[in-house]
Amino acid sequence: MAPPPPTLPPPYHSLPNVLSLPRRHARLPIRRLLAAHALAVVAGHLSLPDPYTHTLLLVAYSRLECARGPYTLLLLLRLSVPPTRRSLPLAVSAASSLRLHLPLALSLHAVAVTRNLLPFAHVANAFVSLYGKNGLPDSARRVFDEMPTPDVISYNALMDGYIKAGRLGLAMKEFHRMPQRDAVSWGTVIAGCAKVGQWEEAVALFDRMRGEGLGPDDVALTAVLSCCAHLGALEKGREVHEYVMQSRSRPNVFLCTGLVDLYAKCGCVEVAQEVFDWCPVRNVFTWNALIVGLAMHGHGTVAVKYFNRMLVEGVRPDGVTFLGVLIGCSHAGLVDMAKRIFSEMEGRYGVSRELKHYGCMADLLGRAGLIEEAMKMVEKMSTKGDAYVWGGILAGCRMHGNVEAAEVAARHLLELNPEDGGVYSVLAGIYADAGRWEDVARVRKLMDQRIGRRNVGCSSITTDQ
After folding, report:
1. Helix H or strand E segment including 78
2. Which numeric CATH code is attached to 354-449?
3. pTM above 0.85, yes or no
4. According to the model, what pLDDT value does residue 318 have?
5. Which of 90-99, 117-126, 439-448 has the weakest average pLDDT?
6. Could you tell me if 342 and 326 are in contact, meaning their C-beta atoms sit under 8 angstroms apart?
7. Please, is 138 exposed, middle or buried when counting C-beta atoms within 10 Å of its C-beta (0-12, 13-18, 19+)?
8. What is d(CA 300, CA 324) in angstroms, rounded to the nearest whole number?
9. CA atoms of 92 and 255, how far apart (whole Å)
10. How many helices (H) and strands (E) does the chain have?
11. For the chain, domain boundaries
C-alpha cells in the first residue's frame, strides 16, 4: 500500500482567513489567535522575508485584551522580520493600552529611531498619542515638533495629550493654528472646556462648529449636553436632543446618559424618565443620572422605585447610586428604608460608605428627630465627621430644639472652620428658641471676636442731574 502523501503546511495566503474577524465579533478569541500563531510558526511563515504575516499577527494581538498581548508583540518584533511602518504603530497601540506595559511601549520609540520610521506620519502619530494618553505631553510635543508635515491626526493627538494633562490653554492654541480641523478636533476642545468647567465656552465652540457646517461627533454632543445641564440651558439642550434624534438611529450610552442628566438636572423629571425608558442601552451612570435627579427634585419615592428596578435588572450600584437614594429617602422621610439601604451598602453590595453617605444619614436622622441615633452613628465612624455630617446634625437640632447635641455639633463645626458665621447664627437661634438669652449674647459676642462685625450693606444709584 502506498504511503500517505506528506502533510503540507497551510498555504501562506490562507492566514488572512484564519486571522480574520467575523463582523459580529469585536475581538478575536484568544484560543483562535494562539492557534493561528502556532499555525504560522509550523508553516514557516514567520521566517519569510515578507512582513505580511507579522502584520496580521500584530493586528490580532493589538486587539487582544489580556496581559500576554503586548509581550507577544515584543517577541514578534524580535523575530527575523524587522518591524515596518505598518506593523510598529500596531505594536505601540497594543503595548500602550495598559499603563502596566508603558515601559514596553516607550522602548519601541528606540526601535522607530533605529529603523528610521519616525518620518512616516502614522508612526510618529502613534508615539504622540502614546505620550499624550500617559500624561507626558512634553514628550508628545517633542515628537510632534520633529514631524516634517503634521496632519490633523497629529494635532488631535497632541491636543488630547494637553487636555489630559490639564493644559487646556495649550490645546486651544494648537486648535486655533491647525491648518484644517475635523469633527475629532472640535470634539476634543469642546470636551476639554467642559472638563474644566468652561461651559459657556464649550457651547460657543459647539455653535461655531455647527455654523461651519461640520457634524459633531459623539464626544462633542455628550460634552455639550453636560454643559447645558450645568448651565440649566434647557432650550439649547433640547436643540442638541433634536439633533441626536435626527442623526443617530441608536445613540450610544454616553449620549443617553447625557440626555437623562440634562432633563433631570433641569427639573424636567418626567421627560428624563421618558428619555431613560427610550434609551436603547444604559449603564450605571445612566441610572445614577436619573436617580440623583429625581432625589434632588423631591421625588424620593420614585427614586427608590428606580433603584429597586436597577437591582432587578442586574445593574450593580455604586457610591453615587446610594448617595442619590439616601438623598431621596431624606427628602421623602423614608427613614426605615434609608436605614436598611445604608446598612446593606457594604455587606450586600460591596460599596464602601463615605463621608457623603454619612452626611445624608445625619441629615435624614436629624430631620426625623432621631438626634441621639445620629450621634451614635457618628461615634461609630472610622473617620472624623466633616462639615456635612455635623451640619446635618446641627440642622436637625434646630428643627427639634436639641440644645445639648447642637452644642456638640457646633463645636466640631467650628473646629473645622472657626470663621463660619452660619454656625454661630444657628446656635444663637437654638439658644433663643430655648429662652437662654445669656447664651445668645455670649455666642454673638464670640462671633464678633472671631470673625468681626459684618460690613453694613450699602447700595448706590446714579440719577440724571
Report:
1. none
2. 1.25.40
3. no
4. 96
5. 90-99
6. yes
7. exposed
8. 9
9. 30
10. 26, 0
11. 190-270, 283-341, 354-449
Half-sphere exposure at residue 143, Cβ-oriented, CA atoms within 13 angstroms = 30
| Residue of 74, 19, 9 whose CA lies nearest to 48 | 9
Q: What confidence score (pLDDT) does residue 81 get?
A: 55
User: Cβ(112)–Cβ(88) under 8 Å?
Assistant: yes
Phi and psi, residue 244, nearest 5°: -60, -45
Q: Cell triple for residue 60?
A: 490580532
Residue 243's Cβ-count burial label (10 Å; 0-12, 13-18, 19+) is middle
The pLDDT, as a whole number, for residue 25 is: 42
DSSP state string for 332-359: HT-HHHHHHHHHHHHHTT-----HHHHH
Q: Which three cell numbers stand for residue 98?
A: 495598559
Query: How far does the chain reach from its first CA to its final CA, in angstroms?
Result: 125
So what's the pLDDT on residue 185?
96
CA distances (Å), origin 265, targets 145, 230, 436 = 44, 8, 42
Instruction: Name the residue type at position 339.
Output: K
Distance CA(426)–CA(447), nearest Å, equals 12
φ, ψ dihedrals at 222, nearest 5°? -65, -40
CA dist 83 → 65, 74, 122, 196 (Å): 22, 10, 14, 40
**Residues near 285 by beta carbon (within 8 Å), at least 6 away in sequence:** 253, 257
pLDDT score at 303? 95
Instruction: Say what the pLDDT of residue 90 is.
Output: 74
Q: Are 418 and 403 in contact (CB under 8 A)?
A: no
Q: Where are the alpha helices (DSSP H) in 28-101?
A: 30-43, 52-62, 68-77, 87-95
The pLDDT assigned to 19 comes to: 45
Tell me the per-residue pLDDT of 245-263, one tens digit each, with 9 for 90 and over.
999 888 999 999 999 999 9
- Give Dmax (Cα) for the chain: 125
Give how far Cα 299 sits from Cα of 162, 264, 333, 334, 390, Å: 41, 11, 11, 12, 25
Give dist(CA 392, CA 383) in Å, integer: 17
Which residues lie below 8 Å from residue 141, measured CB to CB, with a gap of 6+?
Answer: 158
Amino acid of residue 152: V
| Per-chain mean pLDDT for the chain | 82
Chain mean position to CA 447: 42
Give Cβ neighbours of residue 379 (< 8 Å, ≥ 6 apart). none
**Cα gap 275→245, rounded to integer Å:** 11
CA distance 116 to 110: 10
